[in-house]
Amino acid sequence: MLKGKKISFHLMQLCIEAGFAITLVVINIIRILNIPITIDETGYQKNDSYSNLVQEKLGHANNHIFHSLLRKFFAELFTDDLFFLRLDSLIAQVLYLVYSWLICRVLFTNKWWQFCSFIILNISSPFLFNFWGLSRGYALSVTCMTISIYYLLKYLIGRRALFLSISYLGAILAVYSNFSLLNYFVTLFSVIILQIFLFKNNLTPKGYLAKQIAISLFALAILAILITAPLMHIYHFGELSFMGNSGFINDTVKSLVGDGLYLRDPSGSVVVRIISWSLIFTSILSGFYWIFNLVRSRYLKINTVLHLQYGVVLCLLLIIPAISIIGQHLLFNINYITDRAALFFIPLLLLCLLYSLSVLKQQWDIASTAIITCLMLVLSYNFIININTTSTLLWWFDADDLHVLKRITDDSKNKQGKLKIHTYWIFGPAFYYDTHKYYPDKFENLNWDNMSVLGIDTSYDFYYVVSTDNTDTLVKYYHRDGSYLGGGATLYKKN
Fold first, then answer.
1. What is the CA radius of gyration of the chain?
2. Which long-range contacts (CB under 8 A, 24 or more apart) does 117-122 make?
3. pLDDT-based confidence at 298, cuts 50/70/90?
């Protein structure tokens, strides 16, 4: 009877988790279909060959190579509709759901902790959720890293070369999706080397040391072949200069907390500082805890138990990337990564803190369970109130593009010939895609040259500008036809 109840409980938990995962996927699909293309998604060109994308001779940091290759594949296999341009990110979300669930099964034996941790890993940041539905490489890189982490944990269990190889493959693809994940590859490589000296385990198979060094060096060689030339092009063209130079905490940590939790409003700056320093302090405490226990096990000359290996490895996966980023700035003057480029820190941080918190369960079961439950509820509330199906955080200014174009075409039904529009530069690339995709042969080629004085050239049928622009020269021949983005942008129609 007791066994039957236990099976029923586990089955119910699986059904709830599956329902939760399906709900997130459905919300993401709705976003993919509803949100117009954003300025940084417009880089797809049909004449880009696979070879050009791989070589990246133009040095565009927005070419997240693995994503660009998949995007081209899906666009050519199906069509260049926005859904298929974003399809690899949707697939990345599904894989992230699967592998975050698997990681929770590996790390936690308690079913409630498995459940809460799985929920937290997937709703902790509405900002990260944005990228599951955008044609960018950030989501793909986080997923590949998560797959890599799972197989790293599996490798620690039995030291199987296959698991280590898959872990490295995930890390390589993560870097190939977004170069900031080079910090993760360096971390994985370092962890594999360090654990040779850190962990004492009499059950380690013979010959594993030579195998793991060979696999590590082979993975390093493959990565070098894939990214050295593209990375040098990006560095040469100054594409790494758009990040921060105020310090790791101010640039990386605070920007990730502010954007990750949707606390960008100036009134939330105090909250961002409190959360940022709390996370840093907690991470340091976790590091000291695992280091102390590791030193203790080595001093007592006992085998390093698996849960201690997990704790140390998850701690190193969080600490080494931070050291790597700081070192790059000090040695090579490479700016600190910010917001979306630092998204990979979210699962790294959560895995480290959740696993460290699970240690408290041994002494303070009720307290630790209450903490993780409250954390899940707070993050769920923050996710629910901030998620939407009409815009993105960083590219909010493209939310009304299709509404503007519909207004223009509705207002010009009786006009003969093609329509001519002048837009503010930030709207231009998205408008270019939208007009060619949804209104073929309806518009002349767009102009988003902001060097010209608004309204001087009256050959334009419409001007779409930010509301803060000086429109004194515009209102002589044009009148206000609509207000968008909460008053942030205005459409002007020729008198």
1. 25
2. 117/350, 117/354, 117/372, 118/17, 118/20, 119/20, 119/376, 119/380, 120/350, 120/354, 120/372, 120/375, 120/376, 120/379, 121/347, 121/350, 121/351, 122/20, 122/21, 122/24, 122/96, 122/97
3. confident
